[in-house]
Design goal:
Rossmann fold; elongated; 5-stranded parallel sheet; alpha/beta; 216 residues
Length: 216
């Protein structure tokens, strides 16, 4: 009897696949091996190259003092206001740098600039990994028109696999309910086929990378 519905056709194919098994055509394939070549560049340079190619703005900082100076310069040059951060460590950082900020969630909808840390940086794609278990939470990286990330060289990993393994190792069984991978500022071409940035998230994405891996 010929199958009359799409569902029946799919189920028949599943049954046939279970009954009529075939040998693996690639028995020597190593499915655990990465499909990507190992990068020849320094991880910092590899991330910076991929990140800027995706539209992000990268600032290298040899130490935290340099990061404070660079962020202060950005704030002054662009006359940035309504700077938000919920992270106590970043609040201390901004206080030392003499940068005004807001931490009251009641004013979150008026945010212009959001400053957060991140979980990891992915060098292969120039991506930023954040999660719901960070002190910045879910909202700040999305609400802000300009998203500034304070990151460290030790947080750079080659790919998504390593980032997810690092998150699992960090949180154990308490896996974050949201893990987001950000690659450059938000953009879309769905509005009359015109490329537009900042439609459903930050229109500008900065990473201030603090070097915490010193080489001799």
């Amino acid at each position: 009897m010929e199958e009359s519905t799409t569902k029946e056709k799919i189920l028949k194919k599943i049954r046939d696949a279970i009954i009529y098994k075939i040998d693996n055509p690639f028995p020597k394939a190593d499915y655990e091996k990465s499909i990507y070549n190992e990068p020849d560049e320094n991880p910092d340079i590899a991330f910076a190259t991929a990140f800027t190619k995706a539209g992000g703005k990268f600032v290298y900082c040899p130490d935290e003092k340099s990061a404070m100076i660079n962020i202060k310069t950005l704030v002054n040059e662009k006359k940035l206001t309504n700077i938000f951060t919920f992270d106590p460590e970043i609040q201390s950082f901004l206080t030392i740098a003499n940068i005004d900020f807001i931490k009251d969630a009641r004013y979150l909808q008026s945010v212009n600039v959001g400053i957060t840390y991140c979980e990891f940086l992915i060098s292969r794609f120039g991506s930023i990994v954040i999660s719901s278990l960070m002190k910045s939470g879910r909202r700040l990286p999305v609400f802000s028109d300009i998203h500034i990330v304070l990151a460290f060289s030790s947080q750079i990993v080659p790919g998504i696999k390593e980032a997810l393994a690092g998150i699992k190792n960090r949180y154990g069984q308490n896996i974050p309910s949201m893990i987001s991978i950000i690659t450059g500022p938000s953009c879309t071409s769905e509005i009359e086929n015109t490329f537009v940035t900042g439609v459903h998230g930050p229109r500008e994405q900065y990473v201030f990378l603090i070097d915490d891996i010193k080489t001799i």
